[in-house]
Amino acid sequence: MNLPNKLTLTRVILIPFFVFFLLFDPFNDIFKWTALVIFIIASLTDLVDGKIARKYNLVTDFGKFMDPLADKLLVCSAMIGLIELGRIPAVVVIIIIAREFVISGFRLIAADNGKVIAASYWGKFKTTFQMIMVVLMIANIEGYVMHIVTMVVMWIALALTIISLIDYLVKNKEVMNGSK
Q1: 17, 66 Cβ separation under 8 angstroms
Q2: Count H helices, E strands: the chain?
Q3: Considering the entire predicted model, what is its pTM?
Q4: Long-range contacts made by residues 29-36, C-beta under 8 angstroms, separation at least 24?
């Protein structure tokens, strides 16, 4: 169990605490800010674990599997919680989660054919904007300008979700044919 894998596991362990603080008492500022801090820490572990794994050649099969899964669990948990709080439309979350299922299934088929589908820049931009969107929505800072900024970031995250899906499908269309 190397450091990047420990960071990935830390991210998974933080998720229930994050959800608790996000949803238990959403009108309590201490809970809201605690949820936000936990989310930011968990998001930073995503940034750090990959850099460490690549820099020190600590890439493992466990990390290849768990890192993207931990990311999806964190972001999807946050967005589902934000639906509960009325801060994000369910249709946006459905599209984002559907994209994650499609790509995960696509990766499983590719792996079965001996192919690894690496993360694309579009996917990385998507994740970055989704995390920024979640931070803004958890913070829920009042004011017209912040509302507009949050909505713009949400629509950019949604657009990047769709663009990255199309990018994955086009670049890896041979996976659907069962070609290696």
Answers
A1: no
A2: 7, 0
A3: 0.90
A4: 32/138, 32/139, 32/140, 35/138, 36/135, 36/138, 36/139
Q: What is the pLDDT of residue 178?
A: 64
Alpha-carbon distances, residue 83 vs 8, 100, 122, 123, 170 (angstroms): 25, 18, 25, 23, 31
DSSP 121: H
Write down the residue that tokens 């933080």 correspond to. Answer: 14
The pLDDT, as a whole number, for residue 8 is: 94
Length of the chain: 180
Q: What structural domains does the chain harbor?
A: 3-177 (1.20.120.1760)
Predicted local confidence at residue 179, as pLDDT: 55
Tell me the DSSP string of 53-104.
HHHTT---HHHHHHHHHHHHHHHHHHHHHHHHTTSS-HHHHHHHHHHHHHHH
Q: String of b and e for 83-115 (b: at least 16 CB within 10 Å)?
A: eeeebbeeebbeebbebbeebeebbeebeeeee
Question: Which stretches of the chain drop beneath a pLDDT of 70?
Answer: 178-180
